[in-house]
Amino acid sequence: MFLSKLNIVILLVVSNFFTLNIAFAQQAGYKFIENKGQYPDQTYFKTDLRAGNLYLENNRLLFDLYDIKTINKYIEAHYSKELTHPIDQLSCHAYAVNFLNANTSPQIEKLNRTDEYYNYFLGDDPKNWASKAYGFYRINYINLYPEVDLKIYSKYFNLKYDFIVHPGQSPDVIQLDYEGIDKIDIKNERLHIYTSVNHIIEDKPYAYQIVNGSKKNIPCKYKLEGSTLSFELPEGYDQNIDLIIDPTLIFSTYSGSLSNNFGYSATFDSKGFLYSGSSAFGNQYPTTLGAYNTSFSGGIVDIAISKFDTTGTFLIYSTYIGGNSDELPHSLIVNSLDELFILGTTSSTNFPHTIGCYDSTFNGGTPNNLQNGLGVNYVNG
Protein backbone atom coordinates (compact mmCIF):
# COMPACT_ATOMS: atom_id res chain seq x y z
CA MET A 1 0.00 0.00 0.00
CA PHE A 2 1.20 3.47 -0.72
CA LEU A 3 -0.04 6.99 -1.31
CA SER A 4 -0.18 8.21 -4.88
CA LYS A 5 1.66 11.46 -5.56
CA LEU A 6 -0.51 14.30 -6.73
CA ASN A 7 1.09 15.45 -9.97
CA ILE A 8 0.23 18.66 -11.75
CA VAL A 9 -0.26 18.05 -15.46
CA ILE A 10 -0.42 20.80 -18.05
CA LEU A 11 -2.71 19.75 -20.85
CA LEU A 12 -2.20 21.35 -24.22
CA VAL A 13 -5.06 20.87 -26.62
CA VAL A 14 -3.67 20.98 -30.14
CA SER A 15 -6.93 20.35 -31.94
CA ASN A 16 -9.83 22.69 -32.49
CA PHE A 17 -12.92 22.51 -30.33
CA PHE A 18 -15.51 20.26 -31.86
CA THR A 19 -19.04 19.13 -31.17
CA LEU A 20 -19.76 15.78 -29.64
CA ASN A 21 -20.63 13.39 -32.44
CA ILE A 22 -20.60 9.71 -33.22
CA ALA A 23 -16.92 9.68 -34.05
CA PHE A 24 -16.09 11.24 -30.70
CA ALA A 25 -18.35 8.80 -28.86
CA GLN A 26 -16.50 5.91 -30.43
CA GLN A 27 -13.27 7.29 -28.93
CA ALA A 28 -14.71 7.59 -25.43
CA GLY A 29 -13.05 5.51 -22.77
CA TYR A 30 -9.72 5.14 -21.04
CA LYS A 31 -6.75 6.92 -22.54
CA PHE A 32 -3.40 5.20 -22.14
CA ILE A 33 -0.77 7.96 -21.89
CA GLU A 34 2.63 6.98 -23.30
CA ASN A 35 5.72 7.25 -21.12
CA LYS A 36 8.01 10.04 -22.22
CA GLY A 37 10.00 9.98 -19.00
CA GLN A 38 7.29 11.16 -16.60
CA TYR A 39 6.72 7.61 -15.28
CA PRO A 40 9.15 4.95 -13.99
CA ASP A 41 11.25 3.34 -16.71
CA GLN A 42 9.42 0.00 -16.61
CA THR A 43 6.10 1.72 -17.40
CA TYR A 44 4.92 1.78 -21.01
CA PHE A 45 1.59 3.56 -20.45
CA LYS A 46 -0.60 4.87 -17.64
CA THR A 47 -4.34 5.49 -17.48
CA ASP A 48 -6.62 6.99 -14.84
CA LEU A 49 -9.27 4.59 -13.58
CA ARG A 50 -11.19 7.22 -11.53
CA ALA A 51 -10.69 4.88 -8.57
CA GLY A 52 -6.92 4.98 -9.06
CA ASN A 53 -4.36 4.35 -11.78
CA LEU A 54 -3.31 1.52 -14.05
CA TYR A 55 0.28 1.18 -15.25
CA LEU A 56 1.00 -1.01 -18.27
CA GLU A 57 4.46 -2.57 -17.97
CA ASN A 58 6.34 -5.07 -20.12
CA ASN A 59 5.17 -8.21 -18.37
CA ARG A 60 2.57 -7.07 -15.85
CA LEU A 61 -0.33 -4.72 -15.12
CA LEU A 62 0.06 -2.59 -11.98
CA PHE A 63 -3.12 -1.28 -10.33
CA ASP A 64 -2.78 1.62 -7.88
CA LEU A 65 -6.22 2.09 -6.31
CA TYR A 66 -7.52 4.47 -3.65
CA ASP A 67 -10.46 4.46 -1.28
CA ILE A 68 -13.27 5.89 -3.38
CA LYS A 69 -15.53 6.43 -0.35
CA THR A 70 -12.95 8.76 1.20
CA ILE A 71 -12.50 10.57 -2.11
CA ASN A 72 -16.25 11.11 -2.32
CA LYS A 73 -16.12 12.64 1.17
CA TYR A 74 -13.41 15.05 -0.03
CA ILE A 75 -15.56 16.02 -3.00
CA GLU A 76 -18.60 16.58 -0.79
CA ALA A 77 -16.51 18.57 1.69
CA HIS A 78 -15.08 20.68 -1.13
CA TYR A 79 -18.52 21.82 -2.22
CA SER A 80 -19.76 22.26 1.35
CA LYS A 81 -16.49 23.99 2.35
CA GLU A 82 -16.22 21.74 5.38
CA LEU A 83 -13.12 19.63 4.84
CA THR A 84 -12.94 17.50 7.96
CA HIS A 85 -10.89 14.61 6.55
CA PRO A 86 -7.22 15.51 5.97
CA ILE A 87 -5.88 14.33 2.63
CA ASP A 88 -3.14 12.28 4.31
CA GLN A 89 -5.83 9.89 5.60
CA LEU A 90 -6.50 8.64 2.08
CA SER A 91 -5.75 4.92 1.87
CA CYS A 92 -4.34 3.37 -1.30
CA HIS A 93 -3.59 -0.18 -2.34
CA ALA A 94 -1.42 -1.43 -5.19
CA TYR A 95 -1.48 -4.90 -6.69
CA ALA A 96 0.01 -6.44 -9.82
CA VAL A 97 -1.19 -8.93 -12.41
CA ASN A 98 1.97 -10.69 -13.53
CA PHE A 99 2.14 -12.50 -16.88
CA LEU A 100 3.99 -15.62 -15.77
CA ASN A 101 6.62 -17.03 -18.17
CA ALA A 102 5.75 -14.34 -20.73
CA ASN A 103 7.97 -12.56 -23.23
CA THR A 104 9.77 -9.79 -21.34
CA SER A 105 10.11 -7.67 -24.50
CA PRO A 106 6.88 -7.97 -26.48
CA GLN A 107 6.24 -5.75 -29.48
CA ILE A 108 3.95 -2.88 -28.46
CA GLU A 109 1.33 -1.42 -30.81
CA LYS A 110 -0.38 1.83 -29.82
CA LEU A 111 -3.56 2.60 -31.75
CA ASN A 112 -6.21 5.34 -31.97
CA ARG A 113 -4.11 8.29 -30.85
CA THR A 114 -5.74 11.23 -29.07
CA ASP A 115 -5.85 14.65 -30.71
CA GLU A 116 -4.42 16.30 -27.60
CA TYR A 117 -1.03 15.69 -25.99
CA TYR A 118 0.22 16.10 -22.44
CA ASN A 119 3.20 17.94 -21.00
CA TYR A 120 4.64 17.05 -17.58
CA PHE A 121 6.78 19.66 -15.81
CA LEU A 122 7.46 18.00 -12.48
CA GLY A 123 10.04 19.51 -10.14
CA ASP A 124 12.73 22.04 -11.04
CA ASP A 125 15.05 19.72 -12.98
CA PRO A 126 14.37 19.90 -16.75
CA LYS A 127 15.84 16.40 -17.10
CA ASN A 128 12.69 15.10 -15.42
CA TRP A 129 10.32 17.00 -17.66
CA ALA A 130 8.39 15.33 -20.47
CA SER A 131 6.48 16.83 -23.36
CA LYS A 132 4.17 15.77 -26.17
CA ALA A 133 3.05 12.55 -24.53
CA TYR A 134 0.03 11.33 -26.50
CA GLY A 135 -2.76 9.13 -25.31
CA PHE A 136 -4.00 6.02 -27.10
CA TYR A 137 -7.32 4.22 -26.79
CA ARG A 138 -5.98 0.77 -27.55
CA ILE A 139 -2.71 -0.98 -26.74
CA ASN A 140 -1.61 -4.30 -28.24
CA TYR A 141 1.10 -6.58 -26.86
CA ILE A 142 2.24 -8.68 -29.83
CA ASN A 143 3.60 -12.12 -28.87
CA LEU A 144 3.20 -11.57 -25.16
CA TYR A 145 3.37 -15.35 -25.21
CA PRO A 146 4.48 -17.21 -28.34
CA GLU A 147 1.57 -16.83 -30.78
CA VAL A 148 -0.55 -15.09 -28.14
CA ASP A 149 -1.33 -11.36 -28.32
CA LEU A 150 -2.89 -9.14 -25.65
CA LYS A 151 -5.21 -6.26 -26.54
CA ILE A 152 -6.08 -3.69 -23.83
CA TYR A 153 -8.86 -1.15 -24.38
CA SER A 154 -12.16 -0.02 -22.86
CA LYS A 155 -15.81 -0.46 -23.74
CA TYR A 156 -18.38 1.88 -22.17
CA PHE A 157 -15.67 2.78 -19.63
CA ASN A 158 -15.23 -0.82 -18.55
CA LEU A 159 -11.61 -1.89 -18.78
CA LYS A 160 -11.23 -4.78 -21.19
CA TYR A 161 -8.37 -7.05 -22.17
CA ASP A 162 -8.47 -9.70 -24.87
CA PHE A 163 -6.08 -12.57 -25.35
CA ILE A 164 -5.83 -13.64 -28.99
CA VAL A 165 -4.54 -17.21 -29.25
CA HIS A 166 -3.28 -17.90 -32.76
CA PRO A 167 -3.31 -21.34 -34.44
CA GLY A 168 -0.66 -23.70 -33.15
CA GLN A 169 -0.71 -22.38 -29.59
CA SER A 170 -2.70 -23.43 -26.51
CA PRO A 171 -4.46 -21.01 -24.11
CA ASP A 172 -2.82 -23.02 -21.31
CA VAL A 173 0.32 -20.86 -21.68
CA ILE A 174 -1.61 -17.84 -20.33
CA GLN A 175 -1.02 -17.63 -16.60
CA LEU A 176 -1.88 -14.52 -14.58
CA ASP A 177 -0.49 -14.26 -11.07
CA TYR A 178 -2.19 -11.73 -8.74
CA GLU A 179 0.38 -10.21 -6.40
CA GLY A 180 -0.38 -7.93 -3.44
CA ILE A 181 -4.11 -8.62 -3.06
CA ASP A 182 -5.93 -9.43 0.17
CA LYS A 183 -8.07 -12.21 -1.27
CA ILE A 184 -9.04 -13.74 -4.61
CA ASP A 185 -11.94 -16.07 -5.30
CA ILE A 186 -14.27 -17.36 -8.03
CA LYS A 187 -18.00 -16.92 -7.39
CA ASN A 188 -20.67 -17.73 -9.96
CA GLU A 189 -17.96 -17.99 -12.64
CA ARG A 190 -16.73 -14.44 -11.95
CA LEU A 191 -13.37 -13.57 -10.45
CA HIS A 192 -13.54 -11.48 -7.27
CA ILE A 193 -10.44 -9.57 -6.20
CA TYR A 194 -10.36 -7.93 -2.78
CA THR A 195 -7.99 -5.20 -1.64
CA SER A 196 -7.97 -3.00 1.45
CA VAL A 197 -9.76 -0.23 -0.45
CA ASN A 198 -11.79 -1.83 -3.23
CA HIS A 199 -13.54 -4.88 -4.61
CA ILE A 200 -12.84 -5.64 -8.27
CA ILE A 201 -14.80 -8.13 -10.34
CA GLU A 202 -13.58 -9.74 -13.52
CA ASP A 203 -16.69 -10.84 -15.34
CA LYS A 204 -17.18 -14.39 -16.59
CA PRO A 205 -14.73 -14.81 -19.49
CA TYR A 206 -16.30 -14.69 -22.91
CA ALA A 207 -14.48 -16.63 -25.62
CA TYR A 208 -15.29 -16.81 -29.31
CA GLN A 209 -13.99 -17.51 -32.80
CA ILE A 210 -14.88 -15.98 -36.15
CA VAL A 211 -16.03 -18.89 -38.33
CA ASN A 212 -17.04 -18.12 -41.94
CA GLY A 213 -17.64 -14.50 -41.02
CA SER A 214 -19.85 -15.28 -38.01
CA LYS A 215 -19.01 -15.18 -34.31
CA LYS A 216 -19.12 -18.57 -32.62
CA ASN A 217 -19.23 -18.61 -28.82
CA ILE A 218 -16.78 -20.97 -27.13
CA PRO A 219 -17.55 -22.11 -23.54
CA CYS A 220 -14.82 -20.75 -21.26
CA LYS A 221 -14.29 -20.45 -17.51
CA TYR A 222 -11.67 -19.37 -15.01
CA LYS A 223 -9.28 -21.78 -13.30
CA LEU A 224 -7.68 -20.56 -10.08
CA GLU A 225 -4.75 -22.26 -8.36
CA GLY A 226 -3.64 -20.22 -5.39
CA SER A 227 -3.18 -16.70 -6.77
CA THR A 228 -2.58 -17.85 -10.37
CA LEU A 229 -5.40 -17.57 -12.89
CA SER A 230 -5.75 -19.43 -16.18
CA PHE A 231 -8.56 -20.31 -18.59
CA GLU A 232 -10.35 -23.57 -19.28
CA LEU A 233 -12.28 -24.42 -22.45
CA PRO A 234 -14.20 -27.58 -21.48
CA GLU A 235 -15.67 -28.22 -24.95
CA GLY A 236 -12.52 -27.38 -26.89
CA TYR A 237 -12.32 -25.16 -29.98
CA ASP A 238 -11.07 -25.12 -33.57
CA GLN A 239 -7.29 -24.87 -33.18
CA ASN A 240 -6.91 -23.78 -36.81
CA ILE A 241 -8.63 -20.43 -36.16
CA ASP A 242 -7.78 -17.55 -33.83
CA LEU A 243 -9.37 -17.86 -30.38
CA ILE A 244 -10.32 -14.65 -28.51
CA ILE A 245 -10.70 -14.75 -24.71
CA ASP A 246 -12.44 -11.59 -23.55
CA PRO A 247 -12.98 -10.77 -19.81
CA THR A 248 -14.22 -7.43 -18.44
CA LEU A 249 -13.10 -5.67 -15.23
CA ILE A 250 -15.83 -4.09 -13.11
CA PHE A 251 -15.10 -1.79 -10.18
CA SER A 252 -17.84 -2.14 -7.55
CA THR A 253 -19.09 0.70 -5.39
CA TYR A 254 -21.39 1.45 -2.45
CA SER A 255 -24.30 3.87 -2.79
CA GLY A 256 -23.58 5.29 0.66
CA SER A 257 -27.15 5.27 2.02
CA LEU A 258 -27.49 5.88 5.76
CA SER A 259 -31.12 4.78 5.65
CA ASN A 260 -31.87 1.10 5.16
CA ASN A 261 -32.28 0.29 1.49
CA PHE A 262 -32.47 -2.87 -0.60
CA GLY A 263 -31.66 -3.31 -4.26
CA TYR A 264 -34.36 -4.64 -6.58
CA SER A 265 -33.16 -4.07 -10.12
CA ALA A 266 -30.31 -2.66 -12.17
CA THR A 267 -29.62 -2.04 -15.83
CA PHE A 268 -27.43 -0.07 -18.23
CA ASP A 269 -27.92 1.93 -21.40
CA SER A 270 -26.19 1.87 -24.78
CA LYS A 271 -23.44 4.23 -23.57
CA GLY A 272 -22.67 2.14 -20.51
CA PHE A 273 -24.29 4.37 -17.87
CA LEU A 274 -25.55 2.34 -14.92
CA TYR A 275 -28.97 2.50 -13.22
CA SER A 276 -30.07 1.03 -9.90
CA GLY A 277 -33.55 0.76 -8.41
CA SER A 278 -33.97 0.14 -4.71
CA SER A 279 -36.22 0.65 -1.72
CA ALA A 280 -35.31 3.42 0.72
CA PHE A 281 -36.53 3.43 4.33
CA GLY A 282 -36.00 7.04 5.30
CA ASN A 283 -34.60 10.39 4.25
CA GLN A 284 -30.90 9.52 4.20
CA TYR A 285 -30.49 7.98 0.77
CA PRO A 286 -27.94 10.06 -1.23
CA THR A 287 -29.70 12.29 -3.76
CA THR A 288 -28.25 14.83 -6.17
CA LEU A 289 -28.84 18.56 -6.44
CA GLY A 290 -31.80 19.33 -8.69
CA ALA A 291 -33.13 15.77 -8.63
CA TYR A 292 -36.84 15.13 -9.19
CA ASN A 293 -37.37 14.63 -5.46
CA THR A 294 -34.54 14.98 -2.95
CA SER A 295 -36.58 14.04 0.13
CA PHE A 296 -38.49 11.06 1.45
CA SER A 297 -42.19 11.34 0.56
CA GLY A 298 -43.88 9.31 3.28
CA GLY A 299 -45.07 5.91 4.36
CA ILE A 300 -42.51 3.30 5.29
CA VAL A 301 -40.59 3.03 2.02
CA ASP A 302 -40.03 5.02 -1.19
CA ILE A 303 -38.42 4.09 -4.49
CA ALA A 304 -34.81 5.27 -4.90
CA ILE A 305 -33.43 5.56 -8.44
CA SER A 306 -29.75 6.30 -9.11
CA LYS A 307 -27.83 6.76 -12.33
CA PHE A 308 -24.06 6.22 -12.13
CA ASP A 309 -21.32 7.12 -14.56
CA THR A 310 -19.88 4.41 -16.74
CA THR A 311 -17.35 3.34 -14.09
CA GLY A 312 -19.89 3.24 -11.28
CA THR A 313 -17.82 5.84 -9.44
CA PHE A 314 -19.93 9.00 -9.46
CA LEU A 315 -23.65 9.71 -9.31
CA ILE A 316 -25.13 11.36 -12.41
CA TYR A 317 -28.46 11.72 -10.65
CA SER A 318 -30.21 10.13 -7.70
CA THR A 319 -33.82 10.68 -6.67
CA TYR A 320 -36.71 9.52 -4.55
CA ILE A 321 -40.01 8.59 -6.20
CA GLY A 322 -43.03 8.05 -4.02
CA GLY A 323 -46.21 9.26 -2.36
CA ASN A 324 -47.82 9.18 1.06
CA SER A 325 -47.66 5.38 1.37
CA ASP A 326 -45.31 2.63 0.21
CA GLU A 327 -43.90 1.71 -3.20
CA LEU A 328 -41.28 -0.64 -4.60
CA PRO A 329 -39.41 -0.85 -7.92
CA HIS A 330 -39.48 -4.32 -9.44
CA SER A 331 -37.74 -3.86 -12.77
CA LEU A 332 -35.71 -1.26 -14.68
CA ILE A 333 -35.61 -1.27 -18.48
CA VAL A 334 -33.82 1.09 -20.87
CA ASN A 335 -35.21 1.37 -24.40
CA SER A 336 -33.40 2.05 -27.68
CA LEU A 337 -33.55 5.82 -26.98
CA ASP A 338 -31.80 5.36 -23.62
CA GLU A 339 -35.00 6.25 -21.78
CA LEU A 340 -35.38 4.59 -18.38
CA PHE A 341 -38.64 2.79 -17.55
CA ILE A 342 -39.42 1.85 -13.93
CA LEU A 343 -41.95 -0.91 -13.33
CA GLY A 344 -43.22 -1.22 -9.78
CA THR A 345 -46.06 -1.14 -7.28
CA THR A 346 -47.48 1.62 -5.07
CA SER A 347 -50.03 2.03 -2.31
CA SER A 348 -49.90 5.84 -2.39
CA THR A 349 -53.06 7.76 -3.24
CA ASN A 350 -50.93 10.73 -4.37
CA PHE A 351 -48.23 8.90 -6.34
CA PRO A 352 -46.78 11.46 -8.81
CA HIS A 353 -48.30 11.39 -12.28
CA THR A 354 -48.38 13.60 -15.36
CA ILE A 355 -51.24 15.51 -16.92
CA GLY A 356 -53.07 13.46 -19.52
CA CYS A 357 -51.71 10.11 -18.35
CA TYR A 358 -53.71 6.91 -18.82
CA ASP A 359 -55.00 6.87 -15.22
CA SER A 360 -54.43 9.73 -12.77
CA THR A 361 -56.35 8.24 -9.81
CA PHE A 362 -55.53 5.52 -7.32
CA ASN A 363 -58.08 2.73 -7.70
CA GLY A 364 -57.58 1.06 -4.34
CA GLY A 365 -57.41 -2.58 -3.38
CA THR A 366 -57.15 -4.93 -0.43
CA PRO A 367 -54.72 -3.74 2.25
CA ASN A 368 -51.69 -6.03 2.30
CA ASN A 369 -48.95 -6.02 4.90
CA LEU A 370 -46.19 -8.07 3.29
CA GLN A 371 -44.82 -10.44 5.91
CA ASN A 372 -41.89 -11.75 3.87
CA GLY A 373 -39.09 -9.58 5.19
CA LEU A 374 -39.64 -6.68 2.77
CA GLY A 375 -40.97 -4.41 5.51
CA VAL A 376 -43.61 -2.92 3.21
CA ASN A 377 -47.21 -2.21 4.18
CA TYR A 378 -49.61 -1.58 1.28
CA VAL A 379 -52.26 -0.05 3.53
CA ASN A 380 -54.36 1.03 0.54
CA GLY A 381 -53.86 -2.12 -1.46
Q: Quick one: overall form?
A: globular
DSSP helical segment count? 2
Q: Summarize model confidence as the mean pLDDT.
A: 82
Helix/strand order: EHEEEEHEEEEEEEEEEEEEEEEEEEEEEE
Major beta sheet, specifics?
A: 20 strands, antiparallel
Termini distance?
Answer: 54 Å
The number of E-state strands comes to 28
Q: Determine the strand fraction and express it as a percent band.
A: over 45%
Describe the protein's topology.
Layout: E1 10-12, H1 22-26, E2 32-34, E3 43-48, E4 52-57, E5 60-66, H2 68-80, E6 92-99, E7 107-120, E8 130-145, E9 148-155, E10 158-165, E11 176-179, E12 183-187, E13 190-194, E14 199-202, E15 206-211, E16 214-218, E17 221-225, E18 228-232, E19 243-246, E20 248-251, E21 260-268, E22 274-281, E23 302-308, E24 315-321, E25 327-334, E26 340-346, E27 368-369, E28 377-378
Antiparallel strand pairs: 1-7, 2-3, 2-8, 3-4, 4-5, 5-6, 6-11, 7-8, 8-9, 9-10, 10-19, 10-20, 11-18, 12-13, 13-14, 14-20, 15-16, 15-19, 17-18, 21-22, 22-23, 23-24, 25-26, 27-28
